[in-house]
């Protein structure tokens, strides 16, 4: 069986849930650069795993099963764990619904093998001519989610955070806090947050948007509040991890001073404005200046922090420096977790 090289083994993880119409074509299109294909039957009501085992003739395919549905994230993490155990170097995740072209696999793998990135992901917004193929609702939703993701994950230079076409070095996958990662629709974005706390390098890979007869079970209205809450949570965690636990740069002081001055200026100014309104009088100029200077200074400090954060994107790939994986890391990457 052809390999990417004598020392590198590539694995593909395919979550399988209601993909019986497309999965055979997806498997057939995966090229010889891949050594192993893990199809994860995520308690599929259509029995995708049985269908694959009955019809598949590709010796690279292994079917993994969940007794209960765990969502796309749970399926991917199960595939990661098996691929690490089997000695994979790079693990690619593609969907089984035919949206993702397996011919693009080498482009996702190459930057990792060259030591340029720890994790690569697709970006359907790279070619503006191709964006018209994306349904308008998805286009607007992805724009909003991309902005929120930049803030919460700290990867200001990437786009299309919900894109599920990804590749990761096994050394990085083995050290993910798998037990803490969101299992369902927030999985891809939560992965980016976890990667940033590890200081892993993430790279966008241009790809076209492909839509056929597949259907999406994502209800935007239902998950909007959930996504917003999780973005806020991850932003808070990232700032604490990166700016107060792992390091204490000048930006940490700028953030604290900015928040303190801003809070003081708004409370002080608001209180005196309310008192003046109650007695139908004017607010003293000195009081107005104190509140104004505090708020303006706070904005300057917060902008300085934001500038530092944007320039603090991980630049040095992590996986070349991790060394060989421990046997315990290979067997179950999900045992390590963080809150």
Poorly predicted parts: 325-339
Distance between the termini: 42 Å
Any idea of the CATH class of the largest domain?
Answer: Alpha Beta
Question: How many helices?
Answer: 11
Number of strands: 7
Q: How would you classify the quaternary structure?
A: single chain
Shape: elongated
The secondary-structure class comes to alpha/beta
Describe the structure.
This protein has 339 residues and is an alpha/beta fold. It has 2 domains: 229 residues, Alpha-Beta Complex (Spore Coat Polysaccharide Biosynthesis Protein SpsA, Chain A), CATH 3.90.550; 63 residues. It contains 11 helices and 7 strands. It has a 7-stranded mixed β-sheet with strand order 3-2-1-4-6-5-7, with helices on both faces. Helix 2 links the parallel strand 2 and strand 3. The C terminus is likely disordered.
List the helices and strands and how they pair.
Layout: E1 10-16, H1 23-29, E2 36-42, H2 48-55, E3 61-66, H3 71-85, E4 90-93, H4 105-113, E5 119-123, H5 136-153, E6 166-169, H6 170-173, H7 187-198, E7 202-206, H8 220-245, H9 250-278, H10 285-310, H11 327-331
Structure characteristics:
339 residues, alpha/beta, Spore Coat Polysaccharide Biosynthesis Protein SpsA, Chain A, 7 strands, disordered C terminus
Summarize the structure.
It contains eleven helices and seven strands. It is of the alpha/beta class and 339 residues long.
């Amino acid at each position: 069986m052809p390999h990417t090289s004598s020392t590198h083994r590539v694995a593909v993880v395919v979550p399988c849930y209601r993909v019986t119409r497309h999965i055979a074509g997806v498997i057939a299109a995966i090229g010889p650069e891949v050594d192993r294909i893990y199809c994860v039957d995520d308690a599929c009501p259509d029995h995708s795993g049985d269908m694959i085992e009955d019809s598949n003739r590709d010796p690279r395919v292994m079917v993994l099963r969940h007794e209960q549905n765990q969502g796309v994230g749970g399926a991917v993490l199960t595939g990661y764990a098996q691929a690490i155990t089997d000695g994979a170097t790079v693990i690619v995740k593609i969907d089984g619904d035919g949206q993702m072209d397996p011919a693009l696999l080498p482009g996702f793998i190459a930057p990792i093998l060259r030591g340029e990135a720890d994790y690569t992901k697709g970006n359907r917004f790279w070619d503006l001519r191709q964006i018209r193929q994306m349904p308008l609702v998805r286009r607007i939703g992805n724009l909003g989610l991309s902005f929120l993701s930049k803030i919460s994950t700290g990867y200001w230079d990437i786009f299309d955070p919900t894109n599920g076409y990804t590749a990761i070095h096994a050394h990085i996958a083995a050290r993910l806090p798998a037990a803490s990662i969101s299992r369902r629709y927030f999985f891809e974005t939560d992965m980016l947050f976890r990667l940033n706390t590890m200081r892993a390098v993430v790279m966008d890979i241009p790809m076209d948007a492909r839509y056929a007869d597949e259907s999406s079970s994502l209800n935007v209205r239902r998950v909007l509040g959930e996504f917003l809450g999780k973005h806020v949570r991850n932003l808070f965690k990232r700032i604490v991890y990166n700016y107060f636990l792992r390091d204490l740069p000048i930006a940490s002081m700028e953030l604290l001073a900015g928040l303190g001055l801003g809070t003081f200026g708004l409370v002080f100014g608001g209180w005196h404005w309310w008192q003046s309104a109650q007695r139908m009088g004017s607010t003293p100029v000195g009081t107005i200046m104190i509140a104004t200077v505090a708020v303006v200074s706070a904005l300057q400090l917060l902008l300085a922090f934001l500038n530092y954060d944007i320039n603090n994107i991980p630049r040095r790939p992590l996986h070349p420096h991790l060394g060989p994986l421990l046997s315990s890391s290979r067997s179950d990457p999900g045992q390590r977790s963080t809150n």
